[in-house]
Amino acid sequence: MTTIEMAPLLREDLTKRERVVLAHLTEETTLDDIARRLFVTRNTVKSQVRSAYRKLGVSTRAEAVDRARELGLQ
User: Fold this and answer.
1) d(Cα 50, Cα 73) in Å, to the nearest integer?
2) What is the mean pLDDT of each run of 10 residues along the chain (74 residues)?
3) 34 within 8 A of 45, measured Cβ to Cβ
4) 3-state secondary structure of 33
């Protein structure tokens, strides 16, 4: 069995909106709060968060924030 290595994530791999949503995740705020601030639906934010998590290779909010900091995205 072979291990598939993920290519390093580049800043450009995340959309601008995903980076904005990630920035909001550093605050103690809900997805509903983020949606209101960005004038979109909660489902839109949820989708953007899921996409960012997938690209960052994480599964929790804390991991996403830590990974974004490691990559210099925040």
Assistant:
1) 17
2) 49 86 92 97 98 94 92 80
3) yes
4) helix
